[in-house]
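INTERNAL AUDIT FORM
Audit reference: QA-55
Scope: verify that the stored structure record matches its stored sequence.
Auditor: D.O.
Record contents follow.
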Amino acid sequence: MRLPYLRRTLALLAATAAASGLVAGCSGEDQVPSIGYAVDTSVASYNGGTTAGAAAAQAVFGRVLTGFFYTGPDGQPVADTDTGTAKEVPGEAQTIQYRLNPQGVYSDGVLTSCDDLVFTWAARSGRFPRFDSASTAGYEDIERVECQPGSKDGTVVFRPGTRYQPWRTLFGAGELMPAHVAAQAANVPDIVAAVQNDDRAALDRLADFWNTGWNLEPGDLDITRFPASGPYRIESYGLEDGLVLVANERWWGEAPATGRIVVYPKPADLVARIEDGSAAVVDIGAGSLPEVNLDAYTVEQLPSRGIEQLVLNTGGVFESTAARRAFALCVPRQALFDQLGRVAEAPETGLGAGVSNSRTLQQDSLFYPAATGASGPYAAGDTAGAQAALADAGKDGLVVRVGYLAPDDRRARTVAMIADACKAAGITVQDAGTPDFSPVQLRDGTVDAVLGGPGGAPGPAGSLDGIAAIGGLRSGSGLNVGQFRNGRFDAITDQLAAETDSTSQLHLMTEAENLLWAQLPSVPLFATPRTIAFAGGLRNGIAGPTRAGSGWNMDQWVLER
C-alpha cells in the first residue's frame, strides 16, 4: 500500500460512512454490538514502553492508550489530533512543542497532562537504569521536558548538537503512560519534581511500578490501574472471554462506532474463535493456522513491514562469530522464502518480492539494493561453508534450540526445514516453540535463537521508520534480546537518526549492513507474510501489516448481519 492509496481509502471510508449514516456512535438496526478481533500475539503488559509490553502495544492498545502519533497501515506515523498537537519550533537546540487536548481526560477522571510526557521520557531516557525500557531511541537524545505539573503544555528540548529526525515516533499510541497511576502506586506526589530534582529514591519506586505494575494476567484485574486515554478502555481480561474493550465514557473525541471489541490474543484458541464466528477480524501470520476455514471472510495475504528473522543469542553456543556464521550459512533462506514466505500475489520487486537481505531496511527502500550486497554468501544454504565455519569455531557440532510462540504451523515448518538443511553440517536444530514463549527467554539462555519479527515479536510488527528493528540490535536496548553489542553500530544508528543527506545515509546504511552480516546477531529471512481477514458485513476494516496491526482503526469498525 502507498500513501496516496491510503488517503484515497480513508476518504472513501469517510464518504461511505456519511452516506450510509454509519458515523461513529450511531447504530444501524442490523449492527452487531460487539466485534471479535483475533491476533497472533500475546498480551503481557499494558505498558508498551517495556520489553514485555512492546510486542502488543499498538496492535491491541493503540485505541486505548492514544498518543500524539500512531502507526498507519502503510507503516508511517500519523498525527492524532484528538490527543493533542506536536510541532517543531525554532530554537538553538531541536525543540518540539506538545499541547495536549484541553478536553483530554483519562477514563478515571484525571486530566491528561505534560506529567505523562515527563514520566514516559524519564522511563525511556536511559538515564535511570532501573527502568526496563524496550527502547531508548530518541528519548535518550532529549535533554529535558519543560513542564509545569498538571499543565496541558510541554516542551521537549533535545541535547545541544543533536537532532532526531524521526521525532514523530516519540510519545506515541500504546506508549504514553498515565503518570498519575504510577505516582499513586509509588507514593511520589510530584513526578515532575522527582525527575527534575533527580530524586533517585522516588525514581526507583516509580521504576519498580513501571516495570511490572501494568502487567496483565488473565483473571481479576484492578481496573483502577488501567485507565484509558482513548475511545476504548479495558473492562476485563480472561482466558475464555478474551480481552474485553468497551467504549470509554469519558472519551472526548468521536465516539467509537461499535461499543465493544473483544481481543483474542494467544494463547486463546484462535481456530475455534474463527470457526464459531466469534472473531470478525483476523490478523495472523500467513500459514500459521493451516486448518482454519476463512471461506466466510474477505481475505488478504500481504507481506508485512516486520522482517521474519532468527535472532541469535550472542552468548552460549553462539558466543563466537564463527559459530553464528556456521548456523547462518546452513539456513536455506531462498527455499524458506519460496515455500513459506512468498504471498499468493507476490510483487516482482519491493516488499515481499524475495528473501530479505536486511534486518533494518525495508525492501522497497531506495537504499536497499545498494546497501545489502554483503548478504551474498548466505542466500541458499552452504553446507561446506557451514562446516568450515564450525571448524573455525573449534566445534565439531552444535545444538541450536529455536523458540517461538506456538502453535504456529509456518514457524514449526521453518524450524523443520532449517533442521533438515543444517543436519549435514553437524548442526542439530531443535524446535523449542511453546504456548507461553517470550523472546526474553533468549536472554535467559532457555533457547539459542528466536524465530519472529524485530526483537522476536511474535505477531504484528514493523514500520517505515524501523525504530524497533534498530532497537533490537542496539546495545542495552530491552528489545535486544540477543544482547548484541557493537559500539560502531550504535554510532551509525545515532548518525542516521540525524542525517538528511541521501549520499551520507547510503554510506552509513551500507556500513551498518556490512557490519551486521559480518557479526551476524540475527539472520533475516523475509517480510513476514500476514493473513488479514474481515468477516462479511464488516465495514471500515483496513489491513494493517505493521506493528499496529489491523486494529489501528478499530474504533471505526462496524459489523452488520
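Auditor finding: record pair retrieved intact. The chain has 17 helices and 18 strands.
Action required: none
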